[in-house]
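Sulfurtransferase: structure, please.
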Amino acid sequence: MAEVIVSTEWVQQNLNNPKVRIVEVDYDPTTAYDAWHVPNAILIAWKELRHPVRRDFIEPADFERLMSEKGISNDHTVVLYGDFNNWFATYAFWLFQAYGHEDVRIMDGGRTAWAKEGRPTSREKPSFPKTQYKVRRVDWGSRRAYLWEVMQKVLHGEVKKNVILVDVRSPAEYRGEITAPPEYANEQTQVGGHIPGAINIPWGQAVDPETGKFKPPEVLRRLYESAGVTPDKEIITYCRIGERAAHTWFVLKYILKYPAVRVYDGSWAEWGNLVGAPVEK
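Here you go.
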């Protein structure tokens, strides 16, 4: 496995390591972190990472403030895990990487694996001394694809040639039968379907449904390469609001080591609301 992935056993052995901060990232903490969590884990609700006014991530200064308040320093090894098989943990990993945190990792299997393995849990909310966190660099260019870029690639006929768009949503979303998973809040997308030329490889195909852990690299490589997602291409992943796309981005970039993978986090919530945008079903 890639060095940015740690096992549940590793986390259990490092629960009280002062050099490690364990962070649970949840969509809905009331049904996850508040019910139980890994001992000594800090909570970051995914909305804490969102800009308070516009649809975007928090600014570097606000990220610094959040990390400082949570007791996370630049030197900490940050281990992320969460609900929904680490959707929002990989989403947070993407942001930590963009804001230059040197050592950030994902706990393989997230809450699912921790629970199924019968590991210790807690409802206590730890408090750590405040730090003086500083964002040392900001690098979105190699991680994030913007609407105008994706649109140009579609209109210029680059998709399925040197660029591969991977729609990681469910087949029903891809076909335009629904605009959001039934168990999930609907972001009011006006139309259903997918970006022209995108191929559909649902994010969950990369995960063992029994354990919540990533499938072995050789299995993942066959999955993506058989669909034409190869390391010689530029890969852009998308979903509905970005969190599932970040999961597949993590798989391709950090497990399979693809050199050019980005997330279009505007995703279908942006594309499906654009007047005149091309759509396929």
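Notes: The beta strands are 5-6, 20-26, 42-45, 77-82, 104-107, 163-167, 199-200, 234-238, 261-263.
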